[in-house]
Automatic annotation (TrEMBL):
The lineage of its organism: Eukaryota, Metazoa, Ecdysozoa, Arthropoda, Hexapoda. Monomer. GO terms for cellular component: cytoplasm; nucleus. InterPro entries: 8ODP (IPR003563), NUDIX_hydrolase-like_dom_sf (IPR015797), NUDIX_hydrolase_CS (IPR020084), NUDIX_hydrolase_dom (IPR000086). It is found in: Nucleus. Residues 1-130 form the Nudix hydrolase domain. GO terms for biological process: DNA protection. Oxidized purine nucleoside triphosphate hydrolase which is a prominent sanitizer of the oxidized nucleotide pool. Catalyzes the hydrolysis of 2-oxo-dATP (2-hydroxy-dATP) into 2-oxo-dAMP. Also has a significant hydrolase activity toward 2-oxo-ATP, 8-oxo-dGTP and 8-oxo-dATP. Through the hydrolysis of oxidized purine nucleoside triphosphates, prevents their incorporation into DNA and the subsequent transversions A:T to C:G and G:C to T:A. Also catalyzes the hydrolysis of methylated purine nucleoside triphosphate preventing their integration into DNA. Keywords: Hydrolase, Magnesium, Metal-binding, Nucleus. Its main location: nucleus. It comes from Tenebrio molitor. This is Oxidized purine nucleoside triphosphate hydrolase. Belongs to the Nudix hydrolase family. Signal peptide: none annotated. It is an enzyme of class 3 (hydrolase).
Length: 165
């Protein structure tokens, strides 16, 4: 399946909690998620991650670290989306909701609202929360149904990125 669009998704961390926002529109509306969006033309993946965090929750990320990638094969629209996953534990400014993510809330690692998130989140969040390099591939038959998934941990980011290609 050809790769369609490339996205980023960033998780801010503080005191064993992660900042999530409730998406108010578009893809994933009504679901809690990290902050991110589509990589624009002539933009690096890391610059997209930094820009989206600032646009969606008002802070400047200073130690963004890419830890993984999730490839979504969408049977229903015959394309694959690739989402680059980042974590960040140092940032400047105060977090605030935005038009796209409202409200925002710090969730303890033990209290993440998986019942109101994309169905694949519980499969790879454990790696993200521990800052382990990982790669995931998820096949959806429709927006709510996972047909198959593979998640693997890696020793380095470069190896983790191979599965996304
Ligand atoms: N494409 C895609 N993105 C997903 C999936 N699951 C998931 O968490 N995401 C994340 C990645 C992005 O952070 C976000 C989707 O990006 P978006 O539609 O908000 O992109 P954007 O901000 O550029 O959109 P817009 O403001 O231009 O409307 O959701 C999925 O299955 N497909």
């Amino acid at each position: 399946m050809p790769v369609g669009k490339i996205f980023t998704l960033v998780f801010l961390k503080r005191n064993n909690s992660v900042l999530l926002g409730l998406k108010t529109r578009g893809l994933g509306e009504g679901l809690w998620n990290g902050f991110g969006g589509k990589v624009e033309e002539n933009e690096t993946v890391a610059n997209c991650a930094r820009r989206e965090v600032e646009e969606e929750c008002g802070v400047i990320a200073s130690d963004l670290k890419q830890i993984g990638v999730v490839r979504y094969d969408l049977d229903y629209d015959k394309s694959a989306d690739v989402v680059h996953i980042f974590t960040c534990s140092k940032f400047d400014g105060f977090e605030k909701p935005s038009e796209e993510m409202n409200p925002i809330k710090w969730y303890k690692y033990t209290d993440i609202p998986f019942e109101q998130m994309w169905p694949d989140a519980p499969k790879w969040y454990p790696f993200m929360l521990k800052d382990k390099y990982f790669s995931a591939r998820v096949i959806y038959t429709d927006k709510n149904t996972i047909k198959d998934s593979i998640i693997q941990e890696f020793g380095s980011l470069s190896n983790a990125l191979k599965l996304a290609q």
